Recover the amino acids of this structure.
C-alpha cells in the first residue's frame, strides 16, 4: 500500500513532457557513466564497431521528491520509465539499432535523484586503421550528447572519476579476439554555425587485437615457405630439380594466399602491412625462380657455344670468388690437363709412325724415298696399318674436340656456380633485411 500510495502521489499531477525544474533558468545536470562489457564484432570493411556496454544516467527531478516520514520511511522507489521525463541523450556515432534489452523502470530517491541503468548493444561508426594488422590497436569514440537541448538546459558530467573509468575492466569479457586497454573520457562543448552550444561527453574505447591466431595461421606458414625457398638454393645448380622445386613452392604459396584471402581485413581506404608482406614474399619467390632459370641456362650451355669471355672470368672466377670467400677457387680455373696428357702419346705415336717406311701411301713414294720398295708380301699389311693410323688420328681429334667442348661447359658451370652463390647471398640479405624490418615494426607496435 505504501508503494502504491507513493506512486500515485508522485505521478498523479506529473507532466513528463516538460523538463523537471521549477525555475526554467535552472540547468539539468545529467551525470553519465560507461562500462564496456564485450566487444562483439569489428567490421573493417564497413568501418563499424559493435560493442555491448552498461550505461548509467543520473539526474535530479525536482517534481519527484517526498518526505520519507509520510511514507513509512520509504527512501527509494522504482517507476516506469515511460511515466517520467528522461533526457534525450543519444550516441552520435550510432549507425544501426542494436538488439538491446528493454529496461522498463528507473530508480527514484526521495531527494528527486533519478538513476537510469540499462545495457545497450551499440553499433557505431569508427575509423578503423588496419595497417598494423594483426598487431593493430583501435581507438573508437562514443559521443553522448543531448540531441535537442543546448548546454543551458542540459549539461553533462562524468559520474565517476576519469581514472576509475579508464582502467575499469570489472565487467569486461576477456576471452575474445579483442582486449580492452582502457576507456578515456573527455568533456567538451560544440556549436553548429555559431548557434547555441551543446554539451557532449566522449568516451574513447581503446582495444587491441590478440595476434596469436593470425601469427600461427598466417605468418608462420609464409615464413616456413620462405625458409624452404632459401634451402632450395643448396640444390646443385646443374640439377634440373631446382626449377621444379621452386615452381612447386610458388604454386603452394599461391594456394596459400587464396586460402587466407578471406581472413585478411578488406577496406577501401588502405591495405594492411601483412598484405604487402605477402605480395613481397610472392615477388621474392618469383625473383628466386627467375634466378634459378638464369643459372640453369648458364650451366647447360650447348656444345657449340663460345668460350666464356675474359672479362667474365676476371670478374666472377677471380674477384667475385675472392669476395665471396669460396674455398675451392682452384677448381674454378679451367683446366685441360687431361686433354694435353692424352694427346701426347697420340702425338708420339704419330711421330714414330711418320719415319716408318712401311707407312707410305703408294709404292712409288716408297721407291723414291728409299730406293727400294717394300717386299711384296708386306704391301697389303702396310695399307691396313695406314688405315688404322688414320682411324686413330680421327679418334684423337674427336677426343680433343670433345674435351674442348667439355672445357667450355666446365667454364660455364664455374661461372654459373659463382653467380649462383652471389645471387643467393644477395637474395638472403634482402630476405633477412625485410624480415628484420617487419619484425621490428610489429614488435614496436605490439609493445607501444
Amino acid at each position: 500500500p505504501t508503494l502504491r500510495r507513493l506512486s500515485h502521489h508522485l505521478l498523479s499531477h506529473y507532466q513528463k513532457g516538460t523538463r523537471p525544474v521549477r525555475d526554467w533558468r535552472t540547468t539539468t545536470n545529467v551525470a553519465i557513466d560507461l562500462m564496456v562489457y564485450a566487444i562483439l564484432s569489428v567490421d573493417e570493411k564497413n568501418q563499424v564497431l559493435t560493442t555491448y556496454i552498461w550505461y548509467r544516467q543520473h539526474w535530479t527531478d525536482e517534481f519527484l521528491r517526498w518526505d520519507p516520514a509520510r511514507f513509512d520511511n520509504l527512501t527509494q522507489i522504482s517507476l516506469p520509465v515511460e511515466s517520467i521525463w528522461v533526457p534525450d541523450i543519444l550516441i552520435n556515432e550510432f549507425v544501426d539499432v542494436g538488439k538491446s534489452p528493454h529496461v522498463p523502470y528507473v530508480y527514484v530517491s526521495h531527494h528527486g535523484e533519478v538513476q537510469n541503468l540499462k545495457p545497450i548493444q551499440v553499433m557505431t561508426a569508427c575509423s578503423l586503421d588496419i595497417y598494423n594488422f594483426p598487431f593493430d590497436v583501435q581507438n573508437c569514440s562514443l559521443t553522448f550528447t543531448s540531441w535537442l537541448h543546448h548546454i543551458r538546459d542540459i549539461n553533462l558530467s562524468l559520474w565517476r572519476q576519469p581514472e576509475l573509468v579508464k582502467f575499469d575492466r570489472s565487467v569486461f569479457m576477456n576471452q575474445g579476439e579483442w582486449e580492452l586497454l582502457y576507456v578515456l573520457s573527455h568533456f567538451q562543448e560544440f556549436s553548429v554555425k555559431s548557434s547555441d552550444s551543446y554539451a557532449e561527453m566522449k568516451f574513447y574505447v581503446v582495444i587491441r587485437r590478440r595476434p596469436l591466431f593470425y601469427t600461427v595461421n598466417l605468418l608462420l606458414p609464409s615464413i616456413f615457405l620462405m625458409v624452404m625457398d632459401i634451402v632450395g638454393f643448396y640444390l646443385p645448380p646443374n640439377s634440373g630439380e631446382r626449377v621444379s622445386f621452386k615452381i612447386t613452392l610458388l604454386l603452394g604459396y599461391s594456394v596459400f594466399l587464396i586460402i587466407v584471402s578471406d581472413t585478411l581485413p578488406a577496406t577501401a581506404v588502405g591495405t594492411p602491412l601483412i598484405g604487402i608482406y605477402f605480395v613481397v614474399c610472392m615477388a621474392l619467390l618469383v625473383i628466386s625462380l627467375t634466378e634459378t632459370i638464369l643459372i640453369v641456362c648458364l650451366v647447360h650451355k650447348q656444345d657449340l657455344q663460345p668460350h666464356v669471355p675474359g672479362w667474365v672470368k676476371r670478374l666472377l672466377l677471380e674477384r667475385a670468388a675472392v669476395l665471396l670467400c669460396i674455398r675451392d677457387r682452384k677448381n674454378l680455373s679451367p683446366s685441360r690437363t687431361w686433354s694435353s696428357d692424352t694427346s701426347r702419346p697420340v702425338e708420339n705415336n704419330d711421330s714414330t709412325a711418320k719415319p716408318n717406311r712401311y707407312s707410305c701411301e703408294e709404292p712409288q713414294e716408297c721407291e723414291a724415298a728409299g730406293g727400294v720398295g717394300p717386299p711384296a708380301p708386306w704391301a697389303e699389311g702396310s695399307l691396313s696399318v695406314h688405315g688404322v693410323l688414320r682411324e686413330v688420328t680421327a679418334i684423337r681429334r674427336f677426343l680433343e674436340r670433345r674435351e674442348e667442348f667439355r672445357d667450355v661447359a666446365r667454364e660455364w658451370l664455374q661461372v654459373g656456380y659463382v653467380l649462383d652463390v652471389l645471387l643467393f647471398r644477395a637474395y638472403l640479405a634482402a630476405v633477412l633485411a625485410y624480415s628484420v624490418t617487419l619484425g621490428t615494426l610489429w614488435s614496436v607496435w605490439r609493445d607501444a
